[in-house]
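Materials and Methods. Structural model of Thiopurine S-methyltransferase. The 226-residue sequence of Thiopurine S-methyltransferase from Psychrobacter aestuarii was retrieved and submitted for structure prediction as follows.
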Amino acid sequence: MTPDFWQNAWQTQQTGFNQSKPNAMLRQHFDKLNVPKQGRVFVPLCGKSVDMLWLLSQGYHVVGVELHEQAVKELFNEHGLSATVTAHPTQPNLKQYRADYQGQTLTIWAGNLFDVQPDDIGQIDGIYDRAALVALPDDAPERMRWQYTQHLGTLTGYAPQLLLAFSYDDDSGITDKALPPFLVTREALDDYYAAHYDIQLVAKEKAEYVSTRADSGYRLAYVLTA
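The predicted structure was written out as tokens:
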């Protein structure tokens, strides 16, 4: 998906991926990463997810990246957070929003994830990916999903990760649709991450709706550890 696709999705309010409550799998399984209190959690393609507020409430600092700046502004405004806004010193298309929340720090870079570098986010102790990997296609020649996973590893030093995904009732013969969220098979996960992570499926829950195709299937939670 091009940046224009996501900008348009936010502008036209095609944001069904945005949830009003913290994700249940996040609440049930994040502790499996063993991130220390006061540790720093990275949330890629974070939108204005309230999952970040839940992480903050649990005693973690949160660093996010979101392409659509208006979503970042809405997150801070809707939750009464007064943000300090700082331009990136060398990347004109990046802007940092920062505020305190219940004693923790929320930092979000507004801009393209691929413009963000390790020095911009600092040490990361854990990653929470609910809607980033499944948002990206992996068609040749761009292979955006592959590029994302490799850049994520560079940014975070392959910190432990809670990754949420889905599967259909029968994945055999599935031809994925042209719009996200995209099916990410276990074989694909191994391709992206097995060189650096042990990949463990920790939850598989039946669901009547798992994607915009309105297919039934399963919601999945993976824990990735170095």
